[in-house]
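We give this protein:

***
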Amino acid sequence: MGLRFEEDPDDDPDEPDEPNHPGDGAATATTMVPTVGLPLREWEFSTQVLTVPQLVDGVTLVKLLKEAGADGWELTDVIDGGDKRVLLMRRPKRSVLESRRVGFAPPKHN
């Protein structure tokens, strides 16, 4: 059986010894790299602090989540804070006009 030699990976670098540098002000070509992943979304966050008995009583958490859900909030995480729990809520950021909502409708012009 013959001897088999393997090349040392350090002897054959992946990069050339001298990279291609454009000279005399020549422009370099840019490579487009596609973005992969979830769409970019900006979120606004809110927190609610509950005690452990409030969290497990079966009423307080349900009421809080229903009220927050009606306004577009969703529960993201529950963070342990010792004897209290912090509910981390989020919703997509709203436009400037939508975020200025108040509790009454604008007057109607006749």
